[in-house]
Amino acid sequence: AQSVTQLDSHVSVSEGTPVLLRCNYSSSYSPSLFWYVQHPNKGLQLLLKYTSAATLVKGINGFEAEFKKSETSFHLTKPSAHMSDAAEYFCVVSDGSSASKIIFGSGTRLSIRP
Amino acid sequence: DSGVTQTPKHLITATGQRVTLRCSPRSGDLSVYWYQQSLDQGLQFLIQYYNGEERAKGNILERFSAQQFPDLHSELNLSSLELGDSALYFCASSSGANTEAFFGQGTRLTVV
């Protein structure tokens, strides 16, 4: 069985400061991990993905995430927050089974203070 | 543009009615997923189809059903609608195992 836990439902940072959104996962298979972003009243957009290549993954808009197998974590970071980063972020795990089910975390709402 | 098309974008209907939501996956993608997103429940996985066959089932009510057709488009049928069914319904598609899913813009359903 697989699952994903986003440890914070809401994160608030000041513009220009670092962002850290935390995600822990469990999977019976070698998982693929993703981060998606959803801006208000918009669909979900893929930020980045990990599929067993490099453990440090760079995504769009300056975001990156590091896969740490020993900690079963896939935290999302950005060195300097921008007002346009305010959105809902979802950590996602997909196993390699034939069903290839995609499991979403409950989401983290990121707010940016001016 | 993700390449996944959902129609209609908005739908307003009365309680007790039935609606059909349509999804066209990205060209070449065999997997289609349906999700419901509401304010109180967050993003809930409903059902997945792969090349016409049901692959996984999530929190889908018995009043809801879905299918994937030979041309790979999918439809989600919602019947005996209740006020609580008001939500954003997303369709996503992927090409297979361990690949990312691409999402449509969603259908916003309002039941009055």
In short:
Chain A has 114 residues and is an all-beta fold. Chain A has no helices and 12 strands. Chain A is 0% helix and 54% strand.
From the N-terminal CA to the C-terminal CA of chain A, the straight-line distance is 41 Å
What's the helical proportion of residues of chain B?
A: under 10%
- Overall pLDDT metric of chain B: 92
Put simply, the count of helices of chain A is 0
What is the N-to-C succession of helices and strands of chain B? EEEEEEEEEEE
Could you estimate the helical fraction of the residues of chain A in percent? under 10%
Label the structural class of chain A.
Answer: mainly beta
Oligomeric category: heterodimer
- Report the span from N to C terminus of chain B: 31 Å
Mind telling me the C-alpha Rg of chain B?
Answer: 13 Å
Low-confidence stretches of chain B: none
Mean pLDDT of chain A: 90
Shape of chain A: globular
List the uncertain runs of chain A.
Answer: none
Structure characterization notes:
- The complex is a heterodimer of chains A (114) and B (112).
- Chain A is built from no helices and twelve strands.
- With 114 residues, chain A is an all-beta fold.
- In chain A, strands 2, 5, 6, 10, 11 and 12 form a six-stranded mixed beta sheet that branches.
- The radius of gyration of chain A is 14 Å and the shape is globular.
- Chain B is built from no helices and eleven strands.
- Chain B has strands at residues 5-7, 10-13, 19-24, 31-38, 42-50, 53-57, 64-68, 74-78, 87-94, 102-103, 107-111.
- In chain B, the strands form two sheets. In chain B, strands 2, 4, 5, 6, 9, 10 and 11 form a seven-stranded mixed beta sheet that branches. A four-stranded antiparallel beta sheet of chain B has the order 1-3-8-7, with no helix packed on it.
- In chain B, a hairpin with a 2-residue loop joins strand 5 (42-50) and strand 6 (53-57).
- Chain A binds chain B through residues 31-32, 34, 36, 42-46, 49, 51, 90, 92, 94-104, 106-107, and chain B through 2, 31, 33, 35, 42-43, 45, 48, 50, 55-56, 90, 92, 94, 96-106.
